[in-house]
Amino acid sequence: MSHEEKKMKPIWYLVGWMLLINGVLIFASGIYYFFNPSHYRTVLAELHPSIWWGAMMLVVGGIMLIASRKATVD
User: Fold this and answer.
1) pLDDT digits (tens, 9 = 90+) for 11-51
2) Most CB atoms closer than 10 Å: which of 19, 38, 40, 56?
3) Which phi and psi (to 5°) does residue 46 adopt?
4) Three-class HEC string of the chain
5) Long-range CB contacts (< 8 A, 24+ apart) of 63-71?
6) What pLDDT digit, counting tens, does each position of 50-63 carry?
7) Hey, how many other C-beta atoms are within 10 angstroms of the C-beta on 39?
8) How many angstroms separate the CA atoms of 41 and 72, rounded?
9) Residues sharing a CB contact under 8 Å with residue 35, sequence separation 6 or more, in sequence order
């Protein structure tokens, strides 16, 4: 019988998923508010920060997931 060892995922795997999920939610809300602007305008609303931050969180979360996919803790 072969003995199969279970390997733990690093903490960056969980952090990557958290960033990816939050990035999707923030990016989606930014897209929604881009097409349906609020009646209340903030100072930098024309820069659409939720789109930029959501996209950055998506990219960083994806990089962390890919980087930690191969790394396992013995």
Assistant:
1) 889 999 999 999 999 999 999 999 998 888 888 888 999 99
2) 19
3) -70, -15
4) CCCCCCCECCHHHHHHHHHHHHHHHHHHHHHHHHHCCCCCCCCCHHHCHHHHHHHHHHHHHHHHHHHHHHCCEC
5) 63/16, 64/12, 64/13, 64/15, 64/16, 64/19, 65/13, 65/16, 65/17, 65/20, 67/12, 67/16, 68/9, 68/10, 68/12, 68/13, 68/16, 69/13, 71/10, 71/12
6) 999 999 999 999 99
7) 4
8) 47
9) none
Both tokens of residue 49? 């920060």
Q: Name the pTM for this structure.
A: 0.80
Tokens 């996919």 belong to which residue?
Answer: 69
Sequence-separated (6 or more) residues with CB below 8 Å from residue 4: none
Rounded Cα distance between 33 and 42, Å, is 13
